[in-house]
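Quick question, first post here. What does this chain look like in 3D?
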Amino acid sequence: MNLKENLISLKNTFANPSCTLVAVSKTKPKEMLMQAYEAGVRDFGENKVQEMSEKAEQLPSDIRWHMIGHLQRNKVKYIAPFVHLIHSVDSLKLLKEIDKEAKKNNRIIQVLLQVYIAQEESKFGLDESELKALLHAPETAKLDSVKIVGLMGMATYTENEAQIRSEFRSLKSIADALKNETLPSNVSLQELSMGMSGDYLIAQEEGSTMIRVGSAIFGERNYQ
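> Answer (accepted):
Ran it through. Tokens below.
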């Protein structure tokens, strides 16, 4: 397997060349991440705090680390010093914890709010009414060490491309509608993180600005 060739062939298929590629490196050894780094990748996505923290200590400091997995509040402190973007914020409590830990580290941490768009029980996220309530909550506006820079969503795991497209389109529609509302100064909905190895092309066609791709770069995941 040639990682550089995988990356070139992947980018050649992009419907939107300006879309940010987050290389999902969970369970992959640091040697493999370095191959991707040497091929030009700077955005890496992990879903476990401990694994991301260990890799961040051992790999180049200019890597932008993306937390893409479900994040527990008691784990925020471990990634607050270095995380670039947290994709999976799904509650005001978690947002407040990120703000608290960001203050301790004299940082402003960028986050995405995770929206539930799939027809699957196993997915996390806010529904549209919860999303609006969180964005308009007086407490949200007071958080000056977090910046909400967009939304994230995961489509249903299905072969039905029309369903996937519809789910991504619904998230883009929600994002567009929110841009017409008066939002707090710490909210700037620029990013739309949607699309993975199996559906990133559809996601890009529906307006994704950031895709999270693992197996198309690194090969099939080692399940642990």
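The chain has a mean pLDDT of 94.
The longest helix spans residues 161-179.
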